[in-house]
Every structure is written in C-alpha cells, then in structure tokens.
C-alpha cells in the first residue's frame, strides 16, 4: 500500500514537471515571437524615418544657406482663398490668420533679423490707391517687402504706386492688370531687380478658374542684410 502511494506521488510529480516544462517552452516561444515582432516593427519604423524626406523652413524644397531667410508665398485663388506668406517658418499672412484681403497684400520683414515688422492689405478694386502710396513711402531702407495679390490687385493702381513698387525691385508691376495673379519679394534700397517674382495674366483662354488665372507660388532664400 505504501509503495502504491509512493508510485502515485512519483507519477504526479512527473506529470507536474512535464506540464511545467511544456508550458515554459510554449511561453518562451511566444515571448520570442513577440520580441521578434517588436524588433521587426522598430526596424521598419527606423527605415521609414530614414527614407522620409527632411522638412525645411516654410516647406521649401531645399535648405537655405547661412545668412539667408527661407520664404514661401502664394497668391490668392480667384476670390475664394486668400494668399499666404511665410518667412523663416512663420506664417505672416494667410486666410487662417484672417489678415489678408482683396487687392495687394504686403508683409514687411526686418532685413537683418527676419522679424515681422508689419502686414497690410490694400483694396485695389473698391478702395483707394492713396493709402498704399503713403504706406510704400514709409518703408525703411533694409526692409524686405513681400507682396501677393488676391482677387484683383491692379484696377486702382496708378503710375506713382507702380513706380514705388518698381523701386523695390519689381519688373512685372508695370504691366500688372485686372485680376492678374502676382507674387513678389523685394526690398527697400535694392540696387538691382529682384529675382523673386511670378506673374500670370488674366486670360479667358488659359484661366484655371472662371475669370481668374491659376494660383502662383514662389519660394526661395533671401540674403540677410549685412552691415
């Protein structure tokens, strides 16, 4: 009777040990599978990060060199979506900021620091050109001037206003017409014509929108003003 009881105990212990072994083996396999999944996912995430293209200031296509300010801007889309002006990753004017309007939109930036000085918009359809002229006359030397049209930026323009904008480095301002789309970046005291300007004429045969041409966009690197 004693031997039978001892044999039963041995069998129970053996079953327990076997069960424990099987469970531990299964657990280890599952742990290995989970760890493998985690490591594989980490490797994929790392690969995705390494292949993701870098983002530059204002979303421009390449980094600007030292002592340059990154900028990107777009004209308005018909009379629906306002223009957008970004400098050094700071959106200066946009419909979201609620500081754009019909006509010519202007942002002034400090040529040495890249800091925003002022933003204004001037209605060139139903407004008066006089406030634009007075504003242009107050711009200080060394100021970066960014301009973008929305809806119509030309109807009320006169020769004096066009001349003042031309002196900032614009070449297209002389023939900017009704509902043309135009973006421009120049500066007060500039000695040459600015390379930063895009202009699309309002033409019923080529317009993207009914009565308006397509949006014009422009990006680049503005040299920092040196003492």
């Amino acid at each position: 009777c004693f031997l039978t009881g001892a044999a039963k105990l041995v069998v129970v212990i053996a079953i327990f040990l076997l069960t424990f072994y099987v469970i531990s083996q299964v657990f280890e396999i599952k742990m290995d599978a989970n760890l493998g999944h985690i490591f594989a996912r980490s490797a994929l995430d790392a690969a995705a990060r390494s292949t993701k293209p870098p983002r530059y200031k204002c979303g421009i296509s390449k980094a600007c060199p030292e002592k340059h300010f990154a900028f990107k801007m777009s004209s308005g889309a018909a009379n629906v979506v306002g223009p957008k002006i970004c400098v050094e990753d700071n959106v200066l004017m946009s419909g979201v900021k609620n500081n754009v309007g019909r006509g010519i939109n202007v942002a002034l930036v400090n040529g040495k620091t890249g800091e925003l000085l002022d933003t204004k918009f001037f209605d060139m359809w139903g407004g008066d050109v006089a406030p634009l002229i007075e504003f242009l006359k107050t711009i200080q030397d060394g100021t970066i001037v960014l301009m973008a049209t929305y809806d119509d930026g030309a109807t009320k323009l006169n020769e004096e206003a066009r001349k003042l904008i031309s002196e900032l480095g614009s070449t297209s301002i002389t023939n900017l017409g009704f509902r043309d789309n135009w973006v421009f970046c120049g500066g007060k005291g500039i000695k040459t014509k600015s390379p930063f300007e895009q202009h699309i004429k309002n033409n019923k045969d080529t317009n993207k929108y009914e009565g308006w041409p397509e949006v014009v966009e422009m990006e680049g690197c503005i040299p920092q003003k040196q003492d």
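The radius of gyration is 33 Å. The mean pLDDT is 87.
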